[in-house]
From TrEMBL:
Protein name: Sulfatase
Signal sequence range: none
Chain residue ranges for the region called Disordered: 484-514
Cross-referenced InterPro entries: Alkaline_phosphatase_core_sf, GAG_Ulvan_Degrading_Sulfatases, Sulfatase_N
Record-annotated Sulfatase N-terminal domain positions: 3-341
Pfam families: Sulfatase
Length: 514
């Protein structure tokens, strides 16, 4: 069996034609969808990049594998511990690549800089060949496709291989080559992108709100200053022209990747192996384009960030159907095990959706729990038409602790209806607790990595940023928002807490001698 896995970083299904997007971003991907199965409610269990890909490759929720952040203790997988043998679980079929390598006897190859970008070298486990394209995730497709074509020229006609390719052009900052132009220059914006929406989002605060679209890690603040190297990415959205630049930049990145997907499909056809090749198209996460007031980032546990595309063209299986069931991306390892008629690793948390590919059957789950601990600390539950969100650290966005959205009536998450539907929130909270308790008991855990992140000061992309960001808020006339953030995050101002505690202690001591 020949398997081509295309991991299109940050590509949201809402911006693909086959998922109903009104702009022509994905003609080549759409053609593949017509010949396969398209999954409409497919979510990463853990966002963003490193947690998502670690969950996929380990087949485990971040709660179990331990990697939920981009730094700190939870920026690495848990040690296997006492049960580790000469060969770790990851190297003997516990990871997806090693399972395909040893169980399915496939030649496994990776074309990606991702492990070095995030220091997640566990991602390499089970790959026979590794091609690091060398740009730390900042490369464009024209640097990736030649490597892929060369590999296919050497191996494509062989019977058994698995080739995993990362494309990055839809990841912020948007950087499709200027020579590609703007395919959407004369195309209408999506209907939601209007003056009313922009005015509402002008009231938002926090990283990747319309006022601060860039994170300055060197100076630990959020800013509107964008490098001249990335003319497609605005630093701030003040006007409708800025909003167009933002959306056009993202859509152009997707269209550029789509053209390279088309090149690979053409190359498979030239080699005479297209009809024999499984093609899987997915992503590590989506991209918020205004959802929750966030643009050009994948920073929350919401539908915009965590719903991802999944398209599978499998020779001899279902064609041209759409699956509406709820699925995790970590269901894929179990699915491939069933498709190859092989026993699955007992350590995997997924559920096979192979029958969706074979017969079009409904293999969806009753609910999903999705997590984000790198930009915010949130867990959400997707069930029915509802998305229930519990926020533990808001990443300086002033989110409500509980949020509830009806995705059927409000797919862009504009209206939090938690107060009006307390009974639905209680149902969501029940599912969340049930999932957490069941998963921790099954894994024999006593520490939830979400609380490790909180104990160590918060998510990596927020920890320590508020003091400098607060100065910017004051300087730009948003002192009221800064005061609200200070009240929510007093741990970011330890000197003030020490002064307050010292004053309290002095008053108590003085009362003893009055």
């Amino acid at each position: 069996m020949k398997v081509l896995f295309l991991d299109l970083d940050s590509v949201s299904p809402r911006h693909l034609g086959c998922y109903g997007y009104e702009r022509d971003t994905s003609p080549n991907i759409d053609q593949i969808a017509e010949r396969g199965v398209q999954f409409n409610n497919y979510y990463t269990s853990d966002a963003p990049c490193a947690p998502s890909r670690t969950a996929l490759m380990s087949g485990q929720f971040g709660l179990r594998n331990g990697l939920v952040n981009h730094g700190g203790t939870a920026g690495d997988m848990r040690h296997q511990g006492e049960s580790r043998n000469l060969f770790s679980d990851l190297s003997v079929g516990g990871s997806l690549p090693s399972f395909l390598q040893l169980g399915a006897r496939l030649n496994t190859a990776l074309i990606s800089p991702f492990p070095q970008r995030h220091g997640t070298y566990n991602f390499y486990a089970g790959f026979n060949e590794i091609f690091n394209t060398g740009g730390f995730g900042m490369e464009s497709a024209e640097q990736v496709t030649p490597v892929a074509k060369d590999w296919l020229d050497k191996n494509g006609k062989d019977d058994d291989w698995f080739l995993y390719i990362n494309y990055w052009d839809a990841h912020t900052p948007y950087r499709a080559p200027e020579s590609f132009g703007n395919p959407f220059e004369n195309t209408e914006l999506p209907s939601w992108a209007n003056e009313e929406t922009l005015e509402k989002h002008q009231q938002a605060v926090g990283p990747h709100s319309v006022h601060e679209l860039e994170i300055d890690h060197n100076n630990m603040t959020y800013t509107n200053e964008m490098s001249d190297k990335f003319p497609r990415s605005p630093g701030e959205i003040k006007t409708m022209a800025d909003l167009r630049k933002m959306i056009d930049g993202y859509d152009t990145g997707i269209r550029y990747v789509d053209e390279h997907v088309g090149m690979l499909v053409d190359h498979l056809e030239q080699l005479g192996v297209l009809e024999d090749t499984v093609i899987i198209i997915s992503a590590d996460h989506g991209e918020n384009m205004g959802q929750l007031g966030i643009y050009g980032e994948h920073a929350t546990a919401d539908d915009g960030t965590c719903r991802i595309p999944m398209i599978i063209k499998w020779p001899g299986m279902q064609e041209g159907i759409v699956d509406e069931g709820l699925h995790y991306h970590l269901d894929l390892p179990l699915t491939l095990a069933e498709m190859f008629d092989l026993p699955a690793s007992p350590n995997w948390d997924g559920r096979s959706f192979a029958d969706s590919l074979k017969t079009g059957a409904d293999t969806g789950r009753d609910y999903l729990v999705i997590s984000q601990c790198a930009h915010v600390a949130q867990r959400s539950v997707r069930f029915g038409d509802w998305l229930y969100m519990k926020t533990y650290h808001d990443g300086y966005h002033l989110f409500d602790d509980e949020m509830l959205f009806n995705l059927k009536d409000d797919p862009r998450e504009e209206n939090n209806v938690a107060e009006a539907h307390r009974e639905v929130c209680m149902e969501g909270a029940y599912y969340l607790n049930q999932w957490r308790d069941t998963t921790m008991i099954r894994a024999g855990l006593d520490v939830d990595p979400l609380w490790t992140v909180m104990k160590e000061g918060g998510p990596f992309h927020a920890k320590g940023f508020l003091k400098n960001y607060g100065q910017r808020l004051v300087e730009t006339g948003r002192e009221e928002q800064f005061e609200k953030l200070k009240a929510k995050h007093p741990q970011e101002f330890p000197e003030e807490r020490r002064d307050e505690k010292g004053e309290f202690t002095r008053k108590m001591m003085s009362s003893l001698f009055e």
